[in-house]
Amino acid sequence: MEFIQNNLEQIYFIILCAFIGIEIISNVPAILHTPLMSGANAISGIILVGAIIIMLDIEPTDYLNLTLGGIAVFMGTLNVSGGFFITGRMLKMFNTKKNNQK
Amino acid sequence: MEFIQNNLEQIYFIILCAFIGIEIISNVPAILHTPLMSGANAISGIILVGAIIIMLDIEPTDYLNLTLGGIAVFMGTLNVSGGFFITGRMLKMFNTKKNNQK
Amino acid sequence: MQTIGLLKEPNFETRVCLLPKEVERMVKELKTNVVFEAGYGSKQLVPDETYQNAGAEIAQKESILKESDFILSINTVYKGQELKTNASFIGIFNLLFHRDRLENYLNTPASVYSLDLLPRTTLAQNMDVLSSMASLSGYKAVLKAAELFHGILPMFTTAAGTLKPAKVLVLGAGVAGLQAIATAKRLGAVVEAFDVRTSAKEEVKSLGAKFIEVPGYKESESAGGYAVEQSQEYLQKQKALMKTHIEAASIVICTANIPGKKAPVLIEKESVENMVPGAVIVDLAAEQGGNCELSQNGKTSEHFGVKIVGNSHLARELSQAASQLLSTNYFNFMKHLINSSKANDPLLEGCMVLKNGKLVHPLFIES
Amino acid sequence: MQTIGLLKEPNFETRVCLLPKEVERMVKELKTNVVFEAGYGSKQLVPDETYQNAGAEIAQKESILKESDFILSINTVYKGQELKTNASFIGIFNLLFHRDRLENYLNTPASVYSLDLLPRTTLAQNMDVLSSMASLSGYKAVLKAAELFHGILPMFTTAAGTLKPAKVLVLGAGVAGLQAIATAKRLGAVVEAFDVRTSAKEEVKSLGAKFIEVPGYKESESAGGYAVEQSQEYLQKQKALMKTHIEAASIVICTANIPGKKAPVLIEKESVENMVPGAVIVDLAAEQGGNCELSQNGKTSEHFGVKIVGNSHLARELSQAASQLLSTNYFNFMKHLINSSKANDPLLEGCMVLKNGKLVHPLFIES
Amino acid sequence: MSTLIEMGYMLSIFSFLGGLKFMSSPKKAKQGNMLAAAGMILVVALTFYVGLTETVPYINLTIIFLAIVLGTILGKSISNKVEMTKMPQLISLFNATGGGCALILGIIESQFDASTSGLGNQITLIVGLLTGAVAFSGSIVAERKLSGKIKEYKTKAAILFGRSVLLVIVLLPFLYFSGVLPIGFPAFIFAVAGLSLLYGVLFVLPIGGADMPVVISLLNAITGVATACAGIVYNNKVMIAGGIFVSAAGLFLTILMCRAMNRSLLKVLTGTFKKGNKSSSAEAEQVVRELSIPEMVMQLSFAKKVAIVPGYGLAVAQAQHACAQFQHLLEERETEVHYIIHPVAGRMPGHMNVLLAEAKVDYSNLKEMDEVNDEMDTYDFVLVIGANDVVNPMAETDEDSAVYGMPIIRAYRGKQVVVIKRSMNTGYAGVSNRLFEMENCALLFGDAKDSLQQIIGQLKMI
Amino acid sequence: MSTLIEMGYMLSIFSFLGGLKFMSSPKKAKQGNMLAAAGMILVVALTFYVGLTETVPYINLTIIFLAIVLGTILGKSISNKVEMTKMPQLISLFNATGGGCALILGIIESQFDASTSGLGNQITLIVGLLTGAVAFSGSIVAERKLSGKIKEYKTKAAILFGRSVLLVIVLLPFLYFSGVLPIGFPAFIFAVAGLSLLYGVLFVLPIGGADMPVVISLLNAITGVATACAGIVYNNKVMIAGGIFVSAAGLFLTILMCRAMNRSLLKVLTGTFKKGNKSSSAEAEQVVRELSIPEMVMQLSFAKKVAIVPGYGLAVAQAQHACAQFQHLLEERETEVHYIIHPVAGRMPGHMNVLLAEAKVDYSNLKEMDEVNDEMDTYDFVLVIGANDVVNPMAETDEDSAVYGMPIIRAYRGKQVVVIKRSMNTGYAGVSNRLFEMENCALLFGDAKDSLQQIIGQLKMI
Ligand SMILES: NC(=O)c1ccc[n+]([C@@H]2O[C@H](COP(=O)([O-])OP(=O)(O)OC[C@H]3O[C@@H](n4cnc5c(N)ncnc54)[C@H](OP(=O)(O)O)[C@@H]3O)[C@@H](O)[C@H]2O)c1
Ligand SMILES: NC(=O)c1ccc[n+]([C@@H]2O[C@H](COP(=O)([O-])OP(=O)(O)OC[C@H]3O[C@@H](n4cnc5c(N)ncnc54)[C@H](OP(=O)(O)O)[C@@H]3O)[C@@H](O)[C@H]2O)c1
Ligand SMILES: NC(=O)c1ccc[n+]([C@@H]2O[C@H](COP(=O)([O-])OP(=O)(O)OC[C@H]3O[C@@H](n4cnc5c(N)ncnc54)[C@H](O)[C@@H]3O)[C@@H](O)[C@H]2O)c1
Ligand SMILES: NC(=O)c1ccc[n+]([C@@H]2O[C@H](COP(=O)([O-])OP(=O)(O)OC[C@H]3O[C@@H](n4cnc5c(N)ncnc54)[C@H](O)[C@@H]3O)[C@@H](O)[C@H]2O)c1
User: pLDDT tens digits, residue range F12-28?
Assistant: First the structure.
């Protein structure tokens, strides 16, 4: 109860975001399913930010965690960059002349 | 600046709501324009809540404001009830046999 | 009470100009007497009784001529017999091309209305015998050509190979031409058409056929959308272009006409000789001289293996359909004639050639 | 090197069974000699030179008969002349219905292949002369009917009233029937069809026509989809239903056949008499006795104003198209015949009536 | 306790959300309306309940209760009685009440915490009051216009006046808060309210009557803003959410409506009308009613018996297949569809027959002109596709017309007539067509095939 | 200062939003991708900038910087090199890295504030770690499966084992937090991570290879959850928003994908396959690949040269008009379209001619079998509509077949072949068709007209 009361704003935020997430793609034509999946995948790489934040906090002598954190940043970046690049490539293929509507 | 910082949650809330409002009707078929307008109109009657809240605060002797507030509540209710009823009536007319999709 | 007389048509005629249904309307709606010659509808397989049941009476030819106010026929059937004063002959006499037919009527008490001269105004559409007959002819022309052609019109893919669709060329996209286009399209042929009127292009395309364009036509859409004669140079250009299209065609339907004038010659002997043997030309303009140099009016000839049908009266072969349309046309004309109150009704003036035995029509007086 | 001989067809025949194009293929692909009678292609307007250019040689009829291994014709052209041993006649002799035609061949050194007996297997489709000719006949039957009919097929709304679309009834929805349906539909007629095979229903509908159903058919889709004879009771029911449909029709195209049997009679005299005068019946089954009681093979008759065309060879009127298809069919058959290595090839066995002058075909031996 | 109320509020926010969402899908629109209404009842009940628990004087509660009951009864009875064609007026009127409510709220509120609350709150208050007032007076004018009580009043002067008023409204708060104006807060508030009311009137007056639906939608969005402002003032999430939903959706809807009419919002608001290539002939300009495809489909969806009158334009556009598909769609919805064939429609006898046969239209659907001409008024909807001369009533009435005397299809007798054609060009006979000016007739401009395909697209959605 | 960063964050949230929105519209998808990428760069840059200002040791910054640069380069090069057909694998792999990142994050974080933070935070942390691990291992298995490296492994045992692991994962935290488990927080975390990794493998293993795209989408949504959890832990709005967007959109997308394949998500996850009314004949069951309309349209949209092989089914369905419309649509997209007519297609000679002439297909689009049979491999896409016997390769190969010897259209040589028919029923000749089993061939079940109309609908959207 109290938890809800305290985090009301947070809850609203999450629910509204979820709603938008659903709403926004509810009319996606089926042929865009794959590119969209790929794009969403790239966005989920935002976890990278988390990795950076944590890296900022790690003691410069804590080599284990530095390594782990580095790997995390690397993986996150791979997800982000690979995701966006591949989505871009996929979408480029739709580039057949399609705008000759009367 | 400070204002933004303080009301960040509020701002997110408003923007997200606006976004949803737009998103939600972005695919409405044109024939539903009128009923949707009517329905939205009914919802905007939520101002009625404001009227009630203010009525709760008015001194029982402040007749002028009591009357004004009463009128406000009445008007708000009219907006709400009339809006919903008329939307309902409009939508009922679409009730021709439409579900014989193969 | 006015009397309408129906005379038997000459032997070559298969149509009648009034069917029992319209006889009945004449009697009931226009309050006229109708008298007819026995055996009037025999070619239509309509027995005399049916006419009688519709309210008409049988009479002898002489008495019909003597007693009728209006004498209806398709062809000229009058040979100088006695007439009622103010009697009127109504028919499709094509007098501009057959002036000789006038002679029998000159200086009689009779007036002559020739429905082929009817101005083609909107109001006259339901009396427009030319349109009625032209559409039927256009339809029939294609069937006739398909019948004579020793190949088939549609494309035909079979286990024994593919037969190419026939190329059909329609010259003149007036009433008959458009109908020919539609019919040939229906049968699956590849259809091209040509006309000098620029508005014809859209009309041809609206039927899904290809329009052959010759640049440089001078338009003059007066006189109800009829064509006018063109410059020599234009005709030259047109002919050259036409030639290639004609020689590629398996079937050519000719319908080009200029009212009151000789029909334009669009197919020369040489073109015919260059056509593939077995091709068919149907010339609906044969009576006006023909669009094809070689066509003979009323005959089917053959030249270098190309069959040439010269027939402006193909509608006769659709006697039932044609009679039905004519009958309505005649009825509508009679209704207009009897009810007309205007002093100089443009419709009636347009098609009245003789008034009480005197030439009154401008086209005839001028020349 | 084997020799193929081409003999001129009898006078009534307009088609040829081999065109220059296939002659060339015979020479080039099958490595055969081709000899032909002078004037062979004249009815097709194909000059002898064209045949010669394709690789064939002109010869006298006698020498052709004497020297050819394969003698190709459409009709029977052999009158007992001298032959090469093991010579083969290939044609469409319709021997089941014309047993007399066998006589000339019996006890000669020759074998006879009659292509109308070819089993209708998938493999034989490109030699199937019956299918080729039936489709052309179906198409032509409708054109012929439309030509004879004195009304028009499509609906026609004009200022002078509306002409109703003609009702066309197609009996038997085999190869010819389906083609007739398609053609009549194209021309805008209201088309109904009837067949005893149940699978015909879907086929008819796939062409957009209405199928008339008679309940209680016993199916037997053996023998390549041919129809089998039906119970008396069924035929009775069928006739009653048919009668109402026939009498409402303006045009009836008859194509119902049972291979090797007399064609079923589907239109009785009474029905014809109840039809509207001016209606047309085209009976493609005339040679097998006709689907209409009154039809006379090879003649156009009239009964109570109804025109009855009895003609099983309408394809002859499309001589060019028909020759093209036949030519391919014959070529494919020859290719199969010459290349066949199997001991008892079902295709060849199916259509070989005589082997070296002896009857070998089961259908002929049995009876 | 208050957590429960918060959650109730949250619930109703989502019910509004879901309601709006459902309302934009034809299949679920009715449930959507219910859902939103349920949310509304919930939130009102909760607020009232708060009042009950908070020891509010009975008189206040009684007034609230009575006002609600009265409002509900009145709303129900009005909306039951009104004719279907008067709907837009009524919506406008209801919107006015909402705006009025916001206006009053603003006025009352301004007396309470005039100076206590901060600047932010005061501005919010003023915006709410201002928008409420504009929505109130604007909606009333819109309603009057739709009922034809006020005519279009589109002079340069009116527009200019309107803009100056707007300027003053915007400047006033600046002046007031910078202390330049020597008036008290209430006076200031009244000034703003008065000016806003005036502006509402001036804003709507110059806009064309046909554009009123768009304006109503816009005013509706404005009411939404007023609501949201009130919500911010009371820090009430439901009001904020509801207001924002409505204003965002309303604004977007306004744009969509403009788009469906092929016009820009700006042009609608300034009252500029698309001129287009109408009437290239020298004829006196005809005043016609132009229709958008959605409007037409909306009307069509109520029709039980429809007549299609094809003409030459159908052939030119080669729209026969689209037309047949359209017919089948209507028939699936159990609407009776007839084609009425005029004897001389098209450019050759039997032209329409050829077309319709090609599209496999059943002959039984074809009616001849004479057959149905006397019962044209039984058709709820007559759709004229590329025909012109053959439906020209001047053939019956105007002796001087070139088409006089020709029998015509009496399309004009249909309850509703819509003509699809590309422009105001005449037909074959070259005469203008009086039908287009008639009250029950509207024009849908565009190529017949394109238009039909769009109509089919829309029809499929219902 | 921090306000600016907050606003930057807000900006990137909206750029993600807009990016996703645009990506769901074919026309703007490319911009959408750009926008989202821009938002991503912004937020990373901002975060890095915070690091710079906050006097973080250089070594950390260097590592971060290097990792980012390396990751970008690798990501770019991989995605440039991969073949188009291997896309789904790659997406899966990238998703694995995201999941792995979340997993590592969870592990590191668990060491830092193990006991300091509250229970809420700890739970969030665990959920993030758990989902990250599942996404990581699951994605890798999915990738392996798609590349055909792992075969379907669908035994009851595996499924049961998977479910027990899941149960343990769910129970473990309860046990731990109620103090029953006598282990430290790090040990607990490692246990959860290990079990989750295991579960990820077991979760994906039993699912059919053809369903992998759906699974990848689901795993993607799971990564989204991991991200959102991490966001909550760090109280970082962008991460929350991004994570929630992705998880909500991903989940919904998963459902949409299932719907497009006509299956339910549950069935996909449990590996059940729609049986349907295939092969009603007594023939040995053929193994065929079934295709959904979107998949087909996707492939079609890449084709430059398309062959349509019509057969009797086209006539039965009366789909000629739809077929012609389909052709025109392709032609508008500058795709070359040929109809290949088999001599005996249909049930009468010239059957296809009649149909296509009716639909006004230009004769120049028709190709004869012999004309093109030798160059069938130049067609990127061969669409067989209701034809069967005439494309049966057994006519060329199987001497015993009833169709042996009949010349056929060599549809099987097309780069891609799709056959539209209603069932596995045979054609006229009654023999089964080997074409359907071929690797480059897929079946689209349904009435030809219905299917074509749906295809048209989808094609219009691109
Ligand atoms: N049937 C016959 O035998 C025959 C023969 C000769 C003459 N006529 C005459 O032709 C006329 C026929 O009347 P009608 O009503 O059928 O035709 P109409 O009066 O000629 O009108 C046709 C209308 O269709 C519109 N149109 C043209 N193309 C279009 C397209 N692609 N999409 C949408 N609309 C299009 C045109 O307006 P926009 O340009 O504004 O689009 C035009 O107003 C009569 O006057 C008749 O007398 C008939
Ligand atoms: N052309 C001729 O002259 C002629 C004459 C007689 C026989 N034949 C024979 O007919 C055959 C023709 O071959 P074909 O490939 O055209 O046809 P087919 O082999 O008979 O195959 C037609 C296919 O279409 C499908 N189909 C039927 N209705 C459909 C609908 N509404 N929507 C989608 N699909 C539908 C059927 O499968 P489902 O049931 O699964 O949908 C069937 O497999 C050949 O065997 C030929 O020998 C031809
Ligand atoms: N007002 C009406 O309602 C009405 C009624 C009937 C006909 N018409 C119109 O009248 C016009 C002609 O009717 P018609 O068919 O009886 O005319 P027609 O028989 O006199 O001529 C047939 C066609 O031949 C064409 N032609 C003339 N010279 C030619 C040449 N050198 N080369 C090629 N074509 C040539 C003409 O343009 C005409 O289209 C049509 O446009 C028709 O629509 C109007
Ligand atoms: N295997 C192949 O590839 C192939 C090749 C050609 C024909 N066929 C099939 O053979 C069948 C018949 O071919 P055909 O047209 O040469 O046959 P046909 O000429 O012998 O008969 C014509 C039609 O008449 C019908 N008929 C028979 N008795 C009837 C009655 N009492 N009433 C009504 N209809 C009756 C038959 O069912 C048949 O459809 C068709 O189904 C055709 O598809 C198959």
Answer: 999 998 898 888 887 78
